[in-house]
Amino acid sequence: MAGIIGICKLIEKDNITVSSSVLNKIELYRGARNEKDKTIIDDLMRYFYIYEVDELVADKVYELCALNKLGSLGPMDLMIAATCLVNNLVLVTHNLKHFSLVPDIKIYKE
Asked: Architecture of 2-107 per CATH?
């Protein structure tokens, strides 16, 4: 849930529009401890434009997998990176170690 608080601060501080992937929603749900956490996630996510995983994203995942050096990225992170690349989005993450290996990805830096 700490990630949600960080995103809220980022929106307030930089007055930016935030979108998300359906995969991020799944990851947030995995961290929910109870129904109250789920409600908080649902309330927050309704303000985001949610990007779906589609064929363009799947094709980009294939391209990223072909690079071989991205073995440290799991399937969810590969799809999140591909979603950012396909839609020309800036990724907001604390996982710089792994995502910085993705060619051409734009990562938000405070």
From this structure: 3-Layer(aba) Sandwich (3.40)
